[in-house]
Each structure stands twice: as C-alpha cells, then as structure tokens.
Amino acid sequence: ATAERTRSLPWSAEQEQAMRIAYLGSRIATGAYPRMAAAFTQDAGPIDLEAVFERALGRVLDAFEPKG
C-alpha cells in the first residue's frame, strides 16, 4: 500500500518529508505545544538503538500476553 501511494504522489519522498517538517515546525512555533518545543530543543544525547528495539519489541510481545 505504501509503495502504491508513493507512486501516485506528484512529489518525491524528500519533498514530502520537507513539507511535513515545515508544517510541524510552524505548528510548534505557535507556542501551542510548549512541551514538544522543549523536547526538540533538548539534546537527547546518544541513542542506544538496540535498547530502543528491545523496549519496543517487549511492549509488542507484552500486548499478546493473556491478562489475569
């Protein structure tokens, strides 16, 4: 579905990404989202992609665990 959608767009993926970033930046600049603005201005430091993957995978697998 994503490939089909991409083929039907009149712009490149890079142009779409640039427009999305510009829109997000304009929304944050309004001041309506102070927490998001603060998050974008903070340096998160190095990201451990292995830990991110492990956490995401764990959350997905936990969703299949029967409750009770």
Describe the protein.
- The protein has 68 residues and is mainly alpha-helical.
- The chain has one domain.
- The longest helix has 16 residues.
- It is extended.
- The mean pLDDT is 88.
What's the SSE blueprint?
Layout: H1 2-8, H2 13-28, H3 34-41, H4 49-63
Jot down its keywords.
68 residues, mainly alpha, 4 helices, 68% helix
The amount of helix comes to 55-70%
Name the helix and strand elements from N-terminus to C-terminus, one letter apiece.
Answer: HHHH
Enumerate the spans where pLDDT stays under 50 for 5 or more consecutive residues: none
* C-alpha-based Rg, rounded: 18 Å
Number of strands: 0
Mean pLDDT across every amino acid position:
88
DSSP summary: helix tally:
4
Structural class: mainly alpha
How would you summarize this macromolecular structure in one to three sentences?
The protein is mainly α.
